[in-house]
Amino acid sequence: MRIIYIAFILFYFQLVACSQTVRIISTLPSILSENSGMLISNENAIWLHNDGGDSAKLYLIDTFGTVLKTILVSNVNNVDWEDITYDNQGRVYIGEFGNNNNSRQDLKVYRIPHPDSISGNTVVAETIEYYYPEQTAFPPSNSEKKYDTEAMIHFQDSLYFFTKDRTSSPHQGYTWLYQISADTGTHAAILLDSFQTNQISYIFEVTGAALSPNQEQLALLGANRVWWFTGF
């Protein structure tokens, strides 16, 4: 996504439908041609990373789209980074779980200190590995392709994934919510719930997630809408 948008969202204590106006802040530099994850910096700027195809780098940009700093995660690769989040200790989690074909068996999350706290231009990551116990074929049949992930949050002591529905014949139009421990090691993802976004079109698939600073509100992002939840 080459353009940063700011959305003015009205929210209530339930999921509601409403139309909002957005405005363009700036365009992104060409080095971020496939920007995927976004993390707010304390420096009045934004940390971004690319999807697969780039090095394992984080880029700090200001609101004019100027790159201020680049950090290399030196001990890992960027196969298909999809989202980034943080915990209440300031540690940052990078989701290495893009899985368009539902065929990956090397799903990971990388944990690093908050990039604002890194004085140099490199950092070494810890690795959290996980798998979906329900998945027995790689890839599964078209009706079972629900293991691609592009959205992640940290809440309390766990990581939560919202999957991107790749099912077809028919397309089910759901996002499935999974939980794993935020500790290093290998974990079985626990299926908790699901939410039907829209069965008609793939444009309604979940591609990002974020918690409000007080962790009382959750936003899920799609190609042309935001789903807003409270009271969870």
Overview of this protein structure:
This protein has a five-stranded mixed β-sheet, with no helix packed on it. The protein has a five-stranded mixed β-sheet with strand order 7-8-9-11-15, with no helix packed on it. The chain has strands at residues 3-7, 22-27, 35-40, 46-50, 57-61, 67-73, 81-86, 92-96, 108-112, 122-123, 126-131, 148-155, 158-164, 174-181, 185-188, 190-196, 208-211, 217-221, 226-230. A hairpin with a 6-residue loop joins strand 4 and strand 5. The two termini are 29 Å apart. By secondary structure, the protein is mainly beta. Helix content is 0%, strand content 46%. The protein is built from no helices and 19 strands.
Which properties best describe this structure?
single chain; 232 residues; 5-stranded mixed beta sheet; 19 strands; disordered N terminus
